[in-house]
């Protein structure tokens, strides 16, 4: 297993080359541009036999991906922020038609005002589209998740977003372990579909009109499709661990089981929290982290079981939901705690919007604030904003 | 795959795919019709103009002659009546509810 230094975007493109998609249709947008640029280089150099479709917009990119996936092609794309916003109506169609498209989402803030830096508002904006969402903590995970996403998507017949924090990871040079090409090919296996738009001997219609008589049944079936997805993510993560020594699950616990105070976070922020935990643990403080890897499906039971013993919990959202009680992750987590009969007090935080620096001092502040809410029980506390000028 | 009437969500095809061709003929598209074409066979000269212009292929023909209308697919647009030659005017559009009341 070669160790190489790569930026996050290059690692994503490297994984795409190894997976050998039949079709990639994509449009460049910061901070994702380098993914499609590097992948187009792989195609131009003859390193991968992919039909690379340079389209005129993200709306067209996702539409082309749907056509390709419906024809039975292994299909991938990448986007971010406004690009994903432009794809939005087509995202629902990809999921509704049960097409296993994999998209690298290089997380970036949404306008206004114009900002190219990291937060999770783009992927949170398509929370209900029917796409799976898996978040990476570092470049290694960004690479690993892209490979696993293909297998998960094709086993579940559902599209997957593999999310990587823009700039923080997409443009961060990291040493990572890559798997050998032939091992990746063996891991993802061949892509077979029951139907193909190009099979003229067995003509099929994808996405037909669906009125009051059948739409609800098809939606209900699509919701049921999620029931086994968590198990598939775990199985694929375990198999990936057998191949690489890096197993994956739905969540990642860090010093959590014996902790008094915990944080839930997704993406690169989880890595920052781990560093702070190391130093606070050295001072004898019992602090821990639950890193959420899979946001869709949301592993409610796993989350509730993992944090219910805490004296207090902080939920860190890198997105906002205007008019809601707090950020989208907070809403999911507290629903899970309610169903798990947990009364652990929870403090909502919003951090890092528009790429605002999320340094260790902010994580330290969270752990310093949590003891004050011990014993609060179920109570909606006002959101604390980390790193904003008050 | 032929679905049973009132198929449940467990029976419908993955993603709503239709895995055989030509099934639109089984789907009644005439639900929103208000007017219905009524043919005066004494006037009809069998020019087949209505058959040519019908956007829903709802004018039925056998042995080269118009035989009537496919009322499962006629949307009542009235193009057939409008295009029937001025000297013939064999087709009249009638409010369907008044016909049903007469029945």
Short structural summary:
The complex is a heterodimer of chains A (390) and B (103). Chain A has 390 residues and is of the alpha/beta class.
Structure in words:
The complex is a heterodimer of chains A (390) and B (103). The N and C termini of chain A lie far apart (48 Å). Chain A has 2 domains: 240 residues, 3-Layer(aba) Sandwich (Rossmann fold), CATH 3.40.50.970; 136 residues, Rossmann fold. In chain A, the strands form 3 sheets. A 7-stranded mixed β-sheet of chain A has the order 3-2-4-5-7-6-12, sandwiched between helices. Chain A is globular. Chain A contains 13 helices and 15 strands. Chain A is of the alpha/beta class. In chain A, helix 6 packs across helix 9 and helix 11 packs across helix 12. The model of chain A has no long low-confidence stretch (mean pLDDT 97). By secondary structure, chain B is an alpha+beta fold. Chain B has one domain: Alpha-Beta Plaits (2-Layer Sandwich). Helices cover 17% and strands 18% of the residues of chain B. Chain B contains 3 helices and 4 strands. In chain B, strands 1-4 form a two-stranded antiparallel ribbon. In chain B, strands 2-3 form a two-stranded antiparallel ribbon. In chain B, a hairpin with a 2-residue loop joins strand 2 and strand 3. The longest helix of chain B is centred in the last third of the chain and has 7 residues. The radius of gyration of chain B is 17 Å and the shape is elongated. The model of chain B has no long low-confidence stretch (mean pLDDT 92). Classes of the chains: A alpha/beta (390), B alpha+beta (103). Chains A and B meet through helix 8 of A and loops of B.
